[in-house]
Design a protein that fits this description.
By secondary structure, the chain is mostly helical. It has 23 helices and 2 strands. Strands 1-2 form a two-stranded antiparallel ribbon. α12 runs antiparallel to α13 and α21 packs antiparallel against α22. The protein is elongated and about 140 Å long. The N and C termini lie far apart (89 Å). The relative contact order is 0.03.
């Protein structure tokens, strides 16, 4: 609005000035050519030139933009057809959201058959057919897509490989993904299919070295990479044990350490892989090595699963083990799992009073059935059945105590 007012004021001022100039002096222009001459005032000439320019400009636009009626009708019909295809596709997507695969497939096929860009609709229709369990229909739709848009063969073959993989046809999916990778070595979606195939086949020896490159290329995300590393780490440790099971325990331990050292930093940081590694080392008689590993890991990165595994170790020097665990109280002053660990280690070091104190503190922080059982067992072993009974009666109320796991029960057996 402000701009309009400013423009209006400028035009009024300019008009007033121009009118005053025309009144003061009309000017004189003479145009002569041979025997012909034209006389006019300068203002009339200016107005005539402006009108002539406007007429020429209008005529040029009409000549440039004029089209034949047949061409205009053809373009209008194409636009109308495309709008209809988009409307069908929209309804198909809505049906997909509702879980109506059959209706979604039918609408998407209708959209594909009338659209000038049918590929995406064919691919989605094939997906709907696969989800409804109609494998032949999915294959037929993809064949139609290839006929309609041969230039999109890579995208169509990729969808075919994904559907084959989902339906359990791993051989077909592998052949298609390998064919795609030969044509497009950097195709991240084909790489992702290859990774899933290797994971399904438990071929971790082949897949594990590929994980970093797959993540870098965007074929897999961080979560998938972490899952692959975890599964591969556990499987490769098991494979090492299986391969060298006939060797003496010392040599088996050496092979396990070689396998561990070959893992990437991210794999070695995974708590599940760490737990599996220390269990395999314990099975080969490396309890001292496990104690040092767990102590070092817990000092740098806190993990309660590793902590409880540390509390279950029967080290040669329970007092030294207890001293190491007590140092963690500075970083974890009110941690029920750490208090449980200290209770177990104090019990193993025969520091009965300290053990009872730590067990009670753990129960105060987080009442857990396993802690309750271990403390009551300690009272019984110390000849204090009254205290054990009073303890159990005191917690005989709905506290939503978590039940002991199988690992907890095994730990209890080792402590009794």
């Amino acid at each position: 609005m402000r701009r309009f007012i400013v423009l209006l004021v400028v035009l009024l001022v300019a008009g007033a000035w121009l009118g005053q100039a025309m009144v003061e002096d009309t000017g004189y222009v003479l145009l002569a050519y041979k025997q012909t001459s034209i006389e006019a005032s300068i203002w009339v000439l200016v107005i005539a030139l402006i009108l002539l320019f406007a007429l020429l400009h209008l005529a040029l636009n009409l000549v440039t933009h004029i089209r034949s009626p047949i061409s205009s009708i053809k373009e209008w019909n194409q636009a109308r057809t495309e709008r209809k295809a988009e409307a069908k596709a929209h309804l198909g997507i809505m049906a997909r959201a509702d879980g109506d695969w059959w209706r979604a497939r039918r609408l998407l096929l209708q959209a594909a058959r009338t659209s000038h860009t049918p590929t995406i609709y064919y691919l989605e229709a094939a997906e709907m057919a696969a989800r409804s369990g109609d494998e032949k229909e999915a294959s037929r739709i993809l064949d139609d897509a290839l006929k309609a848009a041969p230039e999109a063969s890579s995208a169509i073959q990729l969808r075919r490989a994904e559907i084959d993989l989902r339906l359990g046809h791993e051989g077909k999916a592998q052949a298609l993904s390998e064919q795609l990778l030969q044509q497009q070595p950097s195709n991240s979606q084909a790489q992702a299919i290859q990774a899933r195939l290797l994971a399904n086949q438990h071929d971790w020896e082949t897949l594990y070295p590929m994980i970093a490159d797959l993540k870098k290329s965007g074929a897999i995300n961080d979560q998938t990479a972490q899952s692959y590393r975890r599964q591969a780490g556990v499987a490769l440790l098991d494979q090492t044990v299986e391969t060298y099971s006939s060797l003496p325990a010392e040599q088996l331990s050496t092979e396990l350490k070689k396998c561990w050292n070959a893992f990437s930093f991210e794999t070695q940081q995974d708590s599940n892989v760490r737990l599996h590694y220390v269990q395999q080392l314990l099975n080969s008689g490396e309890s001292k090595e496990v104690e040092q590993l767990l102590g070092g890991w817990l000092s740098k990165s806190w993990n309660e699963e590793l902590l409880l595994r540390y509390s279950e170790l029967k080290g040669a020097d329970a007092t030294a083990q207890l001293k190491t665990a007590k140092a963690w109280l500075k970083q974890q002053p009110n941690n029920a799992a750490l208090e449980l660990c200290l209770g177990r280690l104090s019990q193993r070091a025969q520091l009965w009073g300290a053990a009872i104190q730590h067990y009670n503190r753990s129960l105060e922080l987080e009442p857990h059935a396993q802690t309750l059982v271990e403390l009551s067992d300690l009272h019984l072993n110390l000849g204090e059945p009254e205290k054990a009974a009073a303890l159990l009666r005191g917690y005989n109320r709905p506290l939503n105590l978590p039940a002991p796991s199988a690992a907890d029960r095994e730990t209890r057996k080792s402590l009794v």
